[in-house]
Amino acid sequence: MAVETCEYELVPYRGFTLINGIHDPDDVDQIQDLEIRDSDVFVVTYPKSGTIWMQQILLLLEAKGDLAAISRLNTLSSSFNADLIPLD
Q: Span of the secretion signal (predicted)?
C-alpha cells in the first residue's frame, strides 16, 4: 500500500506558520485583536480526535442537557477553527 504525501507551502506570518492557500493572514490578525473574556471556553484537540463531539458535549453542558435547545444552534457558525502552527 503506497503512502501518499502532500507538499504544502508554509508561509511564516507574525510568529505563526500558515499553510498557503488554506490559512489567511487576516485570520491571524483577528486572533491577535481578539478580546478574551473570563467566560470564554477554548476547545483544543488533536486533529481527528473528536473536536466536534467535544463541542457538542460543551453545548449540552451549557444547555443543562436540553437537546431541543442545542438542536436550534448551528455549531459550525459558533466555532472558530484556527489550525495555526506556532513557530518555535
A: none
Of 32, 1, 3, give the one whose Cα is nearest residue 15: 32
Instruction: Give 11's contacts (C-beta < 8 A, 6+ positions apart).
Output: 17, 18, 19, 20
List 11's β-bridge partners, or say none.
Answer: 18
Helix (H) / strand (E) element for 42: namely none
Q: What are the helix (H) ranges across 8-65?
A: 25-32, 51-62
Residue 16 near residue 85, CB atoms below 8 Å: yes
pTM here is 0.44
3-state secondary structure (DSSP) of residue 54: helix
Task: Give the whole-angstrom CA distance, residue 60 versus residue 75.
Answer: 12
Average pLDDT estimate for 3-10: 73
- Reduced to 3 states, what is the DSSP secondary structure of residue 63? coil
